[in-house]
Design brief:
Shape: globular
Largest sheet: 5 strands, parallel
Strand content: 15-25%
Distance between the termini: 23 Å
Radius of gyration: 15 Å
Helix content: 40-55%
Oligomer: single chain
Number of strands: 5
Structural class: alpha/beta
Length: 146
């Protein structure tokens, strides 16, 4: 399976870098995981920032699932079913500090929430990777998920 993770900006916190590295390493035996970091805008106008970042995301021309707190809430088991129902390839988009533009929201195949709470984008990356890893252990009955 191929998984494409698209996120805005670089992972900044050292603990998050280690968490991302940990789950990317665990996923190697299950899937081909590729990360694309979209350059983060540094302008004061948040609307313009989202527009520019959104243009970069849409320029990739790949169908994607958007992570957003207003998205569909899934249990870990349902998320595993969701991931595997998308066939041999799935892409996820994680926005930056201010989320994503309306165009990015509208272009998403589907929208999924990690939680109703808001997380930093560094934390969202770790949570997403952990849930993807958990999905593979659920499907392959590896005992990680109880």
């Amino acid at each position: 399976m191929k998984i494409h993770l698209i996120w805005v900006g670089k992972t900044k916190e050292q603990f998050a870098i280690e968490g991302v590295r940990k789950y990317l390493g665990r996923l190697k035996s299950y899937a081909d995981v590729r990360v694309t970091e979209i350059r983060e805008e540094k302008v004061k106008d948040s609307h313009r920032m989202l527009e520019r970042e959104g243009e970069r995301i849409l320029k990739l021309r790949t169908p994607y699932v958007l992570l957003d707190e207003k998205g569909k809430m899934l249990t870990s088991t349902r998320f595993a079913e969701f991931v595997f129902s998308h066939g041999p390839e799935i892409s996820f988009v994680v926005g930056g500090a201010y989320g994503v533009s309306e165009q990015v929201k509208k272009a998403a195949r589907e929208t999924v929430a990690l939680s109703k709470m808001t997380f930093t984008h560094d934390m969202a990356r770790i949570f997403l990777l952990e849930q993807i890893y958990r999905s593979f252990t659920i499907v392959n009955r590896r005992g990680y998920h109880h």
